[in-house]
Design brief:
The protein has 591 residues and is of the alpha+beta class. The chain has 16 helices and 31 strands. It has 3 domains: 194 residues, Phosphoenolpyruvate Carboxykinase, domain 1; 274 residues, Phosphoenolpyruvate Carboxykinase, domain 3 (Alpha-Beta Complex), CATH 3.90.228; 79 residues, Phosphoenolpyruvate Carboxykinase, domain 2 (Beta Complex). A hairpin with a 4-residue loop joins strand 30 and strand 31. The structure holds oxalic acid and manganese (II) ion. The site of manganese (II) ion has 3 residues, from loops.
């Protein structure tokens, strides 16, 4: 190690030691701390973070083990314009990613990182994505100068010695370097080097940019490795749907950021569904690989929730509310005078006075929101009362259905089922959604977001569709594919579907289809439930007509929809599999 390095490595892996030494020489931290993941380490680092004002201890009577963090006000969301995929050829990254040749990006970022940790500690954060001992799991090592990152990674991943134990002497680990620099947006880069299994993230301290296990490794690098190694890394939640007779069906679902994935993953069925249970395996990411039984098996590589706080309440998500009562880090929500947290859409009425997410005095008369729309909670997944313990099974769980969905005010019905795998891939590939606050930029525009992976696919989107098509040959019993939209509105702008727990009705139809119990009718879009196929009982005035309205297929709207799909298809035309063009033609003909 260099002369400045202190702290004892908790691995003998020569590749890890050599790389950490090289990065130490580059960043020149005052100290190097190798994270073990122990409870004592957590206490010491938390105390230090409180002393330095990085964390505020919350009211321990109300929220034991919970802390509050404010990020820099210019650093509150993922930044797609600063996110790069650095493959040798531009074609490999494809037209939907920012690209720079690896050598050029390394030179640029190493120059920025040079001496960036002087006066700081470099934390070596080993982390395991997925259950220990699983062939689907991967190891990453993140070097960071942010204590907030260390404490958050400890929640979001299996962090510490456990990762080095899984890795052994293997060279197969992700090399992640993170430095906050001075948090200037001008020097903010989230750069991925898929061919080296490496990530460099500079100039930010916002979760999605810096908790490198999540979007960077589990999705961007993961998707690249998945293509190479024959598996899927997807932006999907995973749930186990238990019927009253104990039958369990596993479903994965992809929705773009801030479209209610966490709520769906933690859904509580309404009283009408007495005996049905939804078990949560994951709320954001699924890694899936064909298993020996011919089914697609999924694991959640993560160990925590990094959920959007605003809108989360005992009504919208009682399980999440319970999960965030302890050992949770809150970021950019509002802070009340008794050191409790508040956000728009929480059950309690607004506090008479609070500090807003920027730390300014806030009252209900203030024009600004108290919590940032993308404020977050970071909570251990095992806090969820409906956590499915099979999420720790190294084999993963067999997936029977995949659901795609977006936020669409018009055109898209509540639910329909694809005719087959290729058609299902087309549904995923043409997914559109209105943009939200999870990424910097304008909110509310419809943009194409194939499989909810547009910001997260670590290679050419056309090749990604090809990978989805090719994988069919390796899966003997493929999951059925569905499309949903909870967000359709009437002419006055009222939602046509009540959403939240009532989404259980849609999920039940999906499960019944998969189990061969529910009927459907063929339409130009795919198979749809007729009123008699769909449970509309006890719906408080929601009628068969209301159901037909939310399921309406308006041919004029669909003609426009097909045309607007071209926005993406033209961009990647040179790479798009011909099967997708075919599917488009078939849809036009059916319409
Ligand atoms: C997330 C996102 O944070 O998709 O999960 O932005
Ligand atoms: Mn996400």
């Amino acid at each position: 190690m260099t002369s400045k390095a202190t702290g004892k490595p908790n691995t003998t892996n020569p590749e890890v030691l050599a790389w950490v030494e090289k990065m130490t020489a580059l960043c020149q931290p005052d100290q190097v701390h190798w994270c073990s993941g122990s409870d004592e380490e957590k206490s010491t680092l938390t105390a230090e973070a409180v002393e330095r004002g990085i964390l505020i201890q919350l009211n321990q009577q109300k929220l034991p083990g919970c802390y509050y963090h404010r990020s820099n006000s210019n650093d509150v969301a993922r930044v797609e314009q600063c996110t790069f995929v650095c493959t040798e050829s531009e074609e490999e990254a494809g037209p939907t990613n920012n690209w720079m040749p690896p050598s050029q990006m390394y030179a640029k970022l190493h120059a920025l990182a040079d001496g960036s940790m002087r006066g700081r500690t470099m934390y070596v954060v080993p982390y395991l994505m997925g259950p220990p001992g699983s062939p689907l799991s991967k190891v990453g090592v993140e070097l960071t100068d942010s204590i907030y990152v260390v404490l958050s990674m400890r929640i979001m991943t299996r962090m510490g010695n456990i990762a080095f134990e899984h890795l052994g002497e293997s060279r197969d680990f992700n090399r992640g370097l993170h430095s906050m620099l001075d948090l200037s947006p001008d020097r903010r880069f989230i750069a991925h080097f898929p061919q080296d299994n490496a990530i460099i993230s500079l100039g930010s301290n916002y979760g999605g940019n810096v908790l490198l296990g999540k979007k960077c490794l589990a999705l961007r690098i993961g998707s690249y490795l998945g293509r190479k190694e024959g598996w899927f890394a997807e932006h999907m939640l995973i749930v186990g749907v238990e019927a009253p007779n104990g039958e369990k069906t596993y479903v994965a679902a992809a929705f773009p950021s801030s479209c209610g994935k966490t709520n769906f993953a933690m859904m509580v069925p309404p009283p009408h569904f007495n005996g049905w249970k939804i078990w949560t395996l994951g709320d954001d990411i699924a890694w899936m690989r064909p298993g020996p039984d011919g089914m697609l098996h999924a694991i959640n590589p993560e160990a925590g929730f990094f959920g959007v706080a605003p809108g989360t309440s005992r009504k919208s998500n009682p399980n999440a509310m319970q999960a965030i009562q302890k050992d949770t880090i809150y970021t950019n929500v509002a802070l009340t005078s008794d050191l409790d947290v508040w956000w728009e859409g929480k059950d309690e009425p607004p506090p008479r006075e609070a500090l807003d997410w920027r730390g300014n005095r806030w009252t209900p008369d203030s024009k600004e929101k108290a919590a940032h729309p993308n404020s977050r909670f970071t909570a251990p997944i095992e806090n969820n009362p409906m956590f499915a313990t099979e999420a720790n099974d190294p084999k993963g769980v067999p997936i029977s259905a995949i659901i795609f969905g977006g936020r669409r005010a018009t055109t898209l019905p509540l639910v329909y089922e694809a005719f087959n795998w290729v058609h299902g891939v087309y549904l995923g590939a043409t997914m559109g959604s209105e943009t939200t606050a999870a990424a910097a930029g304008q909110v509310g525009q419809v943009r194409r977001d194939p499989m909810a992976m547009l910001p997260f696919c670590g290679y050419n989107m056309g090749f990604y569709f090809r990978h989805w098509l090719n994988m069919r040959k390796r899966i003997k019993n493929p999951p059925r594919i569905f499309n949903v939209n909870w967000f359709r509105k009437d002419e006055e702008g009222n939602f046509l579907w009540p959403g939240f727990g009532e989404n259980m009705r849609v999920l039940k139809w999906v499960v019944d289809r998969v189990q061969g119990r529910a009927g459907a009718q063929e339409t130009p879009l795919g198979w749809v439930p007729r009123p008699q196929d769909f449970d509309l009982e006890d719906m408080n005035g929601f009628t068969v007509e209301d159901f037909q309205k939310v399921q309406t297929i308006n041919v004029e709207e669909w003609r426009r929809e097909v045309l607007s799909q071209d926005e993406l298809f033209m961009k990647i035309y040179a790479f798009i599999p011909k099967e997708m063009i075919f599917q488009r033609e078939l849809l036009v003909a059916r319409l």
